[in-house]
UniProtKB/TrEMBL annotation:
Gene3D superfamilies: P-loop containing nucleotide triphosphate hydrolases
Keyword GTP-binding recorded: yes
Pfam families per the UniProt record, alphabetical: PapZ_C, RapZ-like_N
Residues annotated as domain RapZ C-terminal: 165-284
Keywords: ATP-binding, GTP-binding, Nucleotide-binding
InterPro entries, per the entry: P-loop_NTPase, RapZ-like, RapZ-like_N, RapZ_C
Residues that, per the record, bind GTP: D59, I60, R61, G62
Name of the featured protein: GlmZ(SRNA)-inactivating NTPase
Organism: Clostridium tepidiprofundi DSM 19306
Residue stretches making up the RapZ-like N-terminal domain: 1-154
């Protein structure tokens, strides 16, 4: 079992660091009183490997409990628990700017100047900084650059966190556009199998419907242009630090055209090596509502 102790100055990026570690598969606990670390370590050891990577945020919010941090770290060492200390800091002017932009008070400067709180905090954290295995100054780092640094240090080779998870989602406009959509494409311009009596009962996953939809020239032109667009966009979303992309494809009821196109796009992206899955939100919605009416 491995522990990462995350500490550092307020405003230096602890929250983003923890989010990154969580994406890397770490079980994260924010603001755990250091005196509870031994008990928490014992509890994790009893999960039989289900929890084997833990990140604990320890900082001055622990108040008087913070002084127990070194006793707890000594316990981890004596019990042969592996741990690293990750310390985040930033220059004074950057920290002051961040606090002014967020309009939050520094936890150690409730009645005074921000710089006074920063100086007190630096002093309180000086010992844990001296023992840190990794120190990251975030003054000139974007959120995504910080994530990349943490991934380089604590991520495993080939870990999926470095990829962007693409979900291709079919839906019906009459049931509403999915609220978590990043990109929405309307395929209601395609011929509708719903109006072909022998196809109406099938869905876009059934061969008769998919063959019908994919037989039209406009379908193939559209899917080719859409794939070209997505091949351009996905790497750029990834570069900006986006970890999940929802591509919603809609038709009227979400059962025929959108399902066929979404499935087609999913297979094409998968073939090109993207980390992708497909979901059909409304594929059975019409049938379910008809049953409820009965």
């Amino acid at each position: 079992m491995k522990f990462v102790i995350v500490s550092g100055l307020s405003g230096a990026g602890r929250t983003q660091a923890v989010r990154c570690l969580e994406d890397l598969g770490y079980f994260c606990v924010d603001n755990l009183p250091p005196t509870l670390i031994p008990k928490f370590a014992e509890a994790c050891s009893k999960t039989f490997g289900k929890i084997n990577k833990v990140a604990l945020v320890i900082d001055i919010r622990g108040g008087e409990f913070f002084d127990d941090v070194f006793n707890s770290l000594n316990y981890l060492k004596e019990e042969n628990y592996k741990y690293d200390i990750l310390f985040l800091e930033a220059d004074d002017d950057i920290l002051i700017k961040r606090y002014k932009e967020s309009r939050r008070k520094h936890p150690l400067a409730q009645e005074g100047r921000i710089i006074e709180g920063i100086n007190i905090e630096r002093e309180k954290l000086s010992q844990i900084r001296d023992r840190a295995d990794n120190i990251i100054n975030t003054s000139k780092l974007s959120i995504w650059e910080l994530r990349d640094k943490i991934s380089e240090i604590y991520g495993e080779i080939g870990q999926i966190e470095t990829e962007i998870m693409v979900t291709v989602l079919s839906f019906g406009f009459k049931y509403g556009i999915p609220v978590d959509s990043d990109l929405v494409f309307d395929v209601r311009f395609l011929p509708n199998p719903y109006y072909v009596p022998e196809l109406k009962k099938y869905s876009g996953l059934d061969k008769p419907v998919s063959d019908y939809v994919l037989a039209f020239e406009e379908t193939n032109i559209f899917t080719k242009k859409l794939i070209d667009l997505l091949e351009y966009l996905i790497p750029r979303y990834k570069k900006e630090g986006k970890r999940q992309l929802i591509i919603s494809i809609g038709c009227t009821g979400g059962r025929h055209r959108s399902v066929t196109i979404a499935d087609r796009v999913y297979k094409m992206l998968d073939h090109k090596g993207f980390y992708v899955n497909v979901q059909h939100r409304d594929i059975d919605e019409d049938a379910n509502r008809s049953v409820k009416k009965l």
